[in-house]
Amino acid sequence: MKKIGILGSTGSIGTQTLAIVRNNEDLQVAALAAGSNVAKLEEQIREFSPAVAALWEEKAADELRIRVADTNTKVLCGMEGLLEIAVMEEIEVFVTAVVGMIGIKPTIAAIEAGKTIALANKETLVTAGHLIMPLAAQRKVPIFPVDSEHSAIFQSMHGENKERISKILLTASGGPFRGRSSADLKGVTVEDALNHPNWAMGRKITVDSATLVNKGLEVIEAKWLFGVEPEKIQVVVHPQSIIHSMVEYVDGGIMAQLGMPDMKLPIQYALFYPDRRPMEGKKVDFYTLSSLTFEKPDTETFKGLAMAYKAIELGGSMPTVYNAANERAVALFLDRRLRFLEIYDLIEGAMEQHKTVCNPSVEEILEAEAETYEYINAYGNAHRRD
């Protein structure tokens, strides 16, 4: 029986992870953690009977304690709760699927406790990759990527000499606005941005896909996961989302991982690596698949990708600013207090006003995040659309 803990259990990745648990009797949930969704976490507690559950917000945790008082689940809250879960002795695999930088400290704690990491929290490596990867190597802790693209890259490296990699080809669907100009994007709505053509994801990551910021975050994450310099990471727009990413080697050979756009495949692969378990669902049918097409990304219109490469180039705390500015800008957009194209303006402004800290500690990373939040909040308050 393999016991797992899930950080972000009520979100898209968390709920799909639990769907995999339902279909595999040798998986057991030892702990669940979420933000503030009391009702959803209560449902999960009653179905999976974890020893421990945690909510980020104290008020929500108090309500959950009352609602599950008839169970044997211990309810925790805040960062202390997440850190307690991260080091639980019985947990073998720690699934980090929470959105945001609150995933950094629990991931570090889990690595120090020797847990296998199934990583779906981009912010952890984007902002603290220089701390996380050396620590994982020191503790001999495997980090299995859950992102479909990074899982594809990981699978495409099996049995290969990593020193012989020519480049990583990171695929992107192009999002709902692929092919549009900046003029076309001036009046797009929240509903337009959330209408992704291929993937069913959370609201924030769906907007990130529309701006190509999500792909920028993935470029930074790939640099740390696979030890490849940014100039060897090439983004390729592939609208069908069948090829999830590729690796080109020095002899010109390219390895690729293909499949339907379904996040359960990379999640299950991370949970059972190196085994491959049967999984129900639609499979790729090459007889009916009409074509696979590829395009160069439009980085002039969708500036989020170019900004990511700039953040990598500047290094240090700048990727934190890039990530934090986007996080708050997207929240303002979803709250209808910001236009779609202004997301780029806020990221650019935050990066320009930041003085980069080289090799930042966790505390310095969080300080850079707080500074960026202050900048974005001031902008938001000055440009309210009540």
TrEMBL record:
Q: Which GO terms describe its molecular function?
A: 1-deoxy-D-xylulose-5-phosphate reductoisomerase activity; manganese ion binding; NADPH binding
Residues reported in the UniProt entry to bind 1-deoxy-D-xylulose 5-phosphate: 122, 148-149, 173, 196, 209, 214-215, 218
Q: What is its EC number?
A: 1.1.1.267
GO BP annotations listed: isopentenyl diphosphate biosynthetic process, methylerythritol 4-phosphate pathway involved in terpenoid biosynthetic process
Q: Manganese among the record's keywords?
A: yes
Reactions catalysed, as given in the entry: 2-C-methyl-D-erythritol 4-phosphate + NADP(+) = 1-deoxy-D-xylulose 5-phosphate + NADPH + H(+)
Q: Which cofactor does this sequence's record say it needs?
A: Mg(2+); Mn(2+)
* Domain 1-deoxy-D-xylulose 5-phosphate reductoisomerase C-terminal stretches: 143-226
Q: Which residues form the DXP reductoisomerase C-terminal domain?
A: 258-373
Q: Which HAMAP family match?
A: DXP_reductoisom
| Protein name from the UniProt record | 1-deoxy-D-xylulose 5-phosphate reductoisomerase
Protein's organism: Parablautia muri
The primary gene name is: dxr
